[in-house]
Design goal:
Glu/Leu/Phe/Val/Trp_DH, alpha/beta, binds 2-oxoglutaric acid, binds 1,4-dihydronicotinamide adenine dinucleotide, Glu_DH, Aminoacid_DH-like_N_sf, Rossmann fold, 12 strands, seven-stranded mixed sheet, 18 helices, NAD, five-stranded mixed sheet, nucleotide binding
Amino acid sequence: MTQVQGYLDQLVAHIEKQNSGQEEYLQAIHEFLPTIYPYLESHPEIVERNVLALLLEPERLIKFRVPWQDDQGKWQVNTGFRVQYNSALGPYKGGLRFHPTVNESIMKFLAFEQIFKNSLTGLPIGGGKGGSDFDPKGKSDAEIMSFCQSFMTELHKYIGPNTDIPAGDIGVGAREIGYLFGQYKRLAQYDAGVLTGKPLAYWGSLGRTEATGYGLVYFVRELLKDMKDSFKGKRVLVSGSGNVAIYAMEKVIQLGGIVLACSDSNGYVYDENGIDLDVVKQIKEQQRGRISEYLTYKPTAVYEENHSIWELSTAVDIALPCATQNEINLELAKNLAKNGVQIVAEGANMPTTLEAVHFYEEQGILYCPGKAANAGGVAVSALEMSQNAQRLPWSKEEVDDKLEEIMTHIYETCRDTASKYGMEQNFLAGANIAGVEKVITAMMSQGLV
Ligand SMILES: NC(=O)C1=CN([C@@H]2O[C@H](COP(=O)(O)OP(=O)(O)OC[C@H]3O[C@@H](n4cnc5c(N)ncnc54)[C@H](O)[C@@H]3O)[C@@H](O)[C@H]2O)C=CC1
Ligand SMILES: O=C(O)CCC(=O)C(=O)O
C-alpha cells in the first residue's frame, strides 16, 4: 500500500467514527477523497503535515433553537444550523435551506461541497451552509415571517458582511430573504451586504435569480462546444421546478434545446411538444402551486404522480437534475443510459448517489458535478457582494457576461486539471483537485488557524 493510500484509509476510518450515521456527509467525503489521490501523490508535504485532517473538520458548527408561533397562537419549535466550514479563501458563503429533511449530516455535506465550489469561482469566498428543518409548505405568510424573524434573532450573532454571508437554497427565496434581512436590520445595523439573493428594491443583483440555472447551461454549452456540438435540438429532462430548474429550462430553450419534462416532490409532467415555461412560472412563481396543475393549461401533457422523472422511458440527450440530493440512484441511472443520455449535469447539490456516479464513468456518460456546474449562483452572489460594497448596481448584461466568463473558466479548469492528472473528461476529479488546491495552498500559507 502506498503512503498516500494509507493516509487516506486512516482519515476515512477517523471520519466514519466521528460522524457515524451521517450518511450524506460521509457520502460527500467518500466521493471526494479518492479523486484527489493523484494530487496528493505529487504533493507529499500535504500528507506529511496532515493538512487534510484540518480541512475535513468544520471550523464551527452552530446549532440553535428556533421558537415561533403558528396562526392558531400555538408555540412551535424547530432546529436551526449554520456550518462555518472553511474560511481560508474568504468569509463563509453559502445558502440557507428550509426543508423538513434538514439535519446535521445534510448541512455538513452541503457546507463541505460549498468550499470547493466557491474556490472554483475564483472569487474570495469561503464555504458555509445553514438552514432549518422547518417546512414552509402549507404555511401562511405570517407564519413564514414569524419563523424567519426568530431564525435571524439567533443567527445574526454569527454573521456579518465580512464574516459570513448567507443566501437562499431550497425553501428560501426572495420572500424569506426579505424577512430575514428585515430582522437583521432591527437587531444589528443596516448593512444589506449581510445576505445575498435580495430583492432588487434593496441592493439585490440583477441576474441572481437566473444565475444558477443559466450558469449550469453555460457549463454544458462549453462541454458541447468541445464536442463540436450545441444545444440545438437536444432532448433535455430537468428535475424540479424551483429556482434552479426554471432558469435552467429557460436557457436550454433559448439555446434551441427541447425540455420534455420537469417535476416537483409530488410527481413529474411530460410534454412531448416541449414544456411551456410560462405555464410553469405561472404555477410555481405566482400561484406557489403543484406541477400537476400544468395539465389544466396543457391537457395533452402527461402527469405521473409519485413517480421520479428519471423513470421516464423516452430518448434523452441531456439530464439536468435540479431538485435535491440523491434523486438519481443506480437503477435510475441505468434507465437514463437505456434512454441514450450522453451528459448528466447537476444543478442540484449531490443529486446522484456514488454508485450512480461510478456507473456513469463506466458507461462513458459525461458527468458534470454540482460543485462545478451549479457554481453560477454563488458566483453571482459574490458579484452582488461587490455591488453592495461599491454601493453601485450593475446592469443585467454586465452580470450575465461575468457569469458566462466565470462558468467558461470553471469548465476549462475542470477539463484541464483532469487532463493534467491523466484523467481525461473526469470533471469530478478535475473539480475536486482544482477546488482543493487553492484552499490547501491558502491554509498552509496561513498556518495553523
Ligand atoms: N438556489 C440556488 O442558487 C442554488 C441551489 N442549488 C441546489 O439546487 C437544488 C434546488 O434548489 P432551488 O431551486 O434553489 O430550490 P427551490 O426550493 O426553489 O426548488 C426545489 C425544487 O425541488 C423539488 N424537490 C424538492 N425535494 C424533492 C424531492 N424529494 N423529489 C422531487 N423534487 C423535489 C421541489 O418541488 C422544487 O421544485 C438544491 O439541491 C439546491 O441545493 C445549488 C446551487 C445554487
Ligand atoms: O448564493 C449563495 O451564497 C449560495 C448558493 C448555494 O447555497 C449553493 O451554491 O449551493
